[in-house]
Amino acid sequence: MSSPTVKELCTLCHSIAKSKGFWDEKRNTGEALMLVVTELAEAMEAHRKQDEENFKEELADVFIRLFDMCGGMDIDVETEILKKCEKNKLRPYKHGKIC
To answer: What's the DSSP call for residue 4?
Structure first.
């Protein structure tokens, strides 16, 4: 059995959220983005408390929120990631910043 593609994960995450009523009405994009930020904050709190299991779970929640949003907005994020990686390859070391 092969691992699911990013596109398949987006479909899965979106279908679960939809079945739980989170897409009964049009989603507010800003609110959906802030839910991702909330999951990142929860991951930071788990990291601060050195709770590795919760940290990993919260990181998974970040991706679930993002994949749900991409599925709901019909964004092929797998293609977008690959395009952005190619663009990033052309950027200078540390984006040209001197640190």
So the answer is: P
User: What's the pLDDT tens digit per position in 2-40?
Assistant: 999 999 999 999 999 999 999 999 999 999 999 999 999
CA dihedral 88, 91, 93, 99 (to 10 degrees): -100
Q: How far is CA 88 from CA 49, 79, 82, 92, 95, in A?
A: 34, 14, 10, 9, 9
Q: What letter would DSSP give residue 91?
A: S
Structural class in CATH, domain 6-90: mainly alpha
Estimate the share of the chain in helix, then strand, then coil, as percent rounded to the nearest 5: 75, 0, 25
Give 4's contacts (C-beta < 8 A, 6+ positions apart): 12
- To the question of pTM greater than 0.85 for the whole model, the response is yes
Tokens (6 digits) for 85 = 């990686």
Measure the CA–CA gap between 58 and 81, rounded to whole angstroms: 21
